[in-house]
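Entries read chain and fold; for instance:
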Amino acid sequence: MSEVKLKDVPMKRNMGFWQIWAIGVGAVVGDGIFLLLGEGIATGGPSAVWGFLLAGLIQMCIMISLGEIAVGMPDAGAMSVWVENFLGKGCGLFSGMTFSVGWVVLGGSISIALGRFTCYWFPGIDLEFGTILFAIILFTIFAIMNILGSAIAGKGQLFFVILLVTIMVLFGIIGAIKGVDTGNYTPWMPNGFSGFTATIPMGTFAYMGAVCIATSGSECKNPINLGKALVWASITFLAMYTFDMLIVVGVVPWDQVSMDVSPFTQAAEVLFGAIGGTILNVAAWLAAATCLIMGTIYTPSRIFYSMATKNYLPKFFSEINPKTKTPVKGIICIWAVGIVFIILGYTDPTGLYTLLCNQATIAWILSWGLAVVAACMFRKEMGKDRIRSEVGWKQPLYPLLPIIAFAGCAYVLYLSFYDWVQFVGVAVWGGVFLLWYFCSIKRKIKQGIITD
């Protein structure tokens, strides 16, 4: 293997530490925290708090493990580029496509959640019509923000995240002051250990969006800020949401929680009355909005851009608008697909929503596992001295965190295959990938369009 070289990419570097931090905190999947948590509590009881915490700790280890390679090889393609460099073209394509396509597909479900949250303030509008209408309008607005430039999208993200963090911190502090019923914490595992472990993949889905921060390396003013943001974004969302979850479980009995309404809204109404429910609905709205801005739109557009520059995808995905310095055509395609999934998601039952969430978890876990392996190979190839002198950011506790990250990925992957439907789902999209790779990519390699 040739010596690793740190590389530059042509996108505009205009994001500072706080904007990068906001990507990590804001891309935590909004409907996972505010909606899927209800299913987690109903499944595992109060122990769902620890299930989500364990999932978040695994996510933090993954993010920090990717820090050195994200800073040393900043690329819009992120894991697709890193994995290809160290594990080969097929693995790199698989890692990049599973991560980015998962975001595009889930854009529909997250938009539906955002539309539903918005209808809360318009009781006179038909709920079903209003949900679709607001989902389409807001998804379009956020796509335009991304088209206008990463700095504009990043500043909008930062503003929303600051509001979200403020609301959630105040909810936790005031909720603790007003008091919780400690009796609600028992039994801790009403459905046994299996109920507890079943909540871990749900927590993984809720937190997994944060790793999209790794795709922003090519647009950082100072790539070293990316390494710092990986650490502090992890600490922020873990501490904030874990504390708030403890308040929720202490206020609302576990057997009264479901996916019909956000458990945070339930708890806020108990603690503060109707005004509390309204405020927490704002938080739910912000969580879904920030996830859409820098998750479902920003992240896949950057990965598709990188892959198109290497001829894996059609060239228009790599076209950068000279004025906004963003991949406009790619963003428009992602917007169009998102609109389709908004409509499909509206007609789908809850079971399909849960299936899509779990399939996305499986796909992203596979992508992360490959990326962690590539990051370890990058560290070995660079050596400790070059990491310190050339990269400028050195991850703490190496190799402990990568070991925990990889083991965590394997464990969550095992838990995610809980019935035969999950195997069928993976077989379907895995088969599509293999057809694309062997029928298209291999042909391009043979023709010299892609260098092997």
